[in-house]
Structure formats: C-alpha cells, structure tokens
Amino acid sequence: MPSDVMDRETMTSFLKEAYTLEGFYAIESAFHYDTLQPQMLDSYDSLLAAYNITRQDFEHSVEWYAHHPELYGQMHQEVINQLDSMMTTP
C-alpha cells in the first residue's frame, strides 16, 4: 500500500464515523439531504480534520481502495459489523 493512502484500520474507522454521520443526517432530514447539506459538509470537514487528512487525501485513498475491491469489500464488511454491533449493544 502506498504511504499516501490511509491504512486499513484508519480507513475503516473513518468510514464508520462517516456512515454514522450519514445515518444521523438521513434521520434528521427525513431523507431529504438537500435540506441539511451545509451542516453535513461542516460535519465532514470536522471529521476530516479529526483524522488530520484533507478531502484530497480521502479521495485518493478511496480511489486506491476502489482498485483493490476485495480489500475494500472486507473493510466495508468490518464497518457494517461494527455498526451492527453498536445497534445491538444496549
């Protein structure tokens, strides 16, 4: 993996946080994302800052993982498992 690509653990963690944000905004907006777009973008910017990465860094990492679909699929399954666990844990 190139050094300018987010490692698997970081990428998985980031995706989990991003999907959690998307879920929150889906519910808040009754699935009318356009009504909350400015707030969503601010939240994504905050998430990127928390991981100390730029939007370009993230996009580059997504592009790299997209060229490695087996690995990307495994990461997405890890994220889904973690989110499922969060939903079923009291």
Low-confidence stretches: none
Q: Strand tally, please?
A: 0
Helical run tally: 4
Mass-distribution shape: globular
Q: Alpha-carbon distance between the termini?
A: 37 Å
> What is the helix fraction of residues, given as a range?
over 70%
Largest sheet: none
How big a fraction of the residues is strand? under 5%
Q: Give me the secondary-structure category.
A: mainly alpha
Q: What is Rg?
A: 14 Å
Order of helices and strands: HHHH
pLDDT average, as an integer?
86
Structure description:
This protein has 90 residues and is an all-alpha fold. Helix content is 74%, strand content 0%. It is built from 4 helices and no strands. The protein has helices spanning 8-28, 37-50, 55-66, 69-88. α1 (8-28) runs antiparallel to α2 and α1 (8-28) crosses α4. The longest helix has 21 residues, at 8-28. The protein is globular. The model has no long low-confidence stretch (mean pLDDT 86).
